[in-house]
């Protein structure tokens, strides 16, 4: 999808009232139930991706907060699903919840051991692609790496804070 159509789609979707994420969807995302989530994506499509919980978190927020041991069990399937979500609707990466946290803020607060590094790599690849599309189309791009949450922290600040907590 070129930048023009991406921006047009993003603006159109912002006008559409967001669907409330069901408790079942939220629980499945928190458990990392890839089979359930794939089926929900297949049957509900963009409505599923655009849904948010009461705290304004989308599916990527939930997936980035999953525990590392759950990811390791089915690392390839899990990261493939995250890649599928990002490919379907990369703008989810820049959506902030009620605390101003993007999915990247949440990911950077977790242990970035083994399988979580794959998620970080996926996110960074999509951020790089969005930046390149903006450059090609002459559109100004504000990196998701410098977006601040309600506490004034960027995702990189969150990573540093997390690291310091472990080194105390």
Which ranges are low-confidence, i.e. pLDDT below 50, for 5 or more consecutive residues? none
What order do the SSEs take from the amino end to the carboxyl end, as H and E?
Answer: HHHHHHHHHH
* CATH architecture assignment: Alpha Horseshoe
Shape: globular
Structural class: mainly alpha
- The CATH topology name reads Serine Threonine Protein Phosphatase 5, Tetratricopeptide repeat
What name goes with the CATH superfamily?
A: Ankyrin repeat-containing domain
Largest sheet: none
Helix proportion range? 55-70%
The first-to-last residue Cα distance is 46 Å
Overall mean confidence score, pLDDT: 83
Beta percentage is under 5%
The total beta strand count reads 0
Under the CATH scheme, which class?
A: Mainly Alpha
Number of helices: 10
Count of folded domains: 1
Radius of gyration: 16 Å
């Amino acid at each position: 999808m070129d930048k023009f159509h991406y921006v047009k789609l993003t603006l159109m979707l912002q006008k559409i009232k967001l669907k409330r994420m069901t408790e079942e969807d939220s629980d499945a995302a928190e458990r990392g139930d890839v089979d359930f989530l794939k089926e929900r994506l297949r049957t509900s499509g963009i409505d599923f991706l655009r849904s948010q919980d009461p705290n304004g978190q989308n599916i990527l927020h939930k997936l980035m907060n999953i525990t590392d041991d759950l990811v390791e069990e089915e690392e390839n399937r899990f990261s493939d699903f995250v890649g599928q979500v990002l490919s379907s609707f990369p703008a989810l990466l820049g959506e902030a919840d009620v605390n101003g946290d993007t999915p990247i803020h949440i990911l950077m607060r977790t242990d970035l051991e083994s399988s979580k590094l794959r998620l970080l790599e996926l996110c960074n690849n999509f951020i790089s692609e969005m930046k390149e599309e903006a450059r090609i189309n002459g559109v100004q791009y504000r990196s998701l790496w410098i977006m601040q949450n309600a506490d004034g922290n960027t995702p990189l600040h969150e990573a540093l804070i997390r690291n310091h907590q472990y080194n105390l």
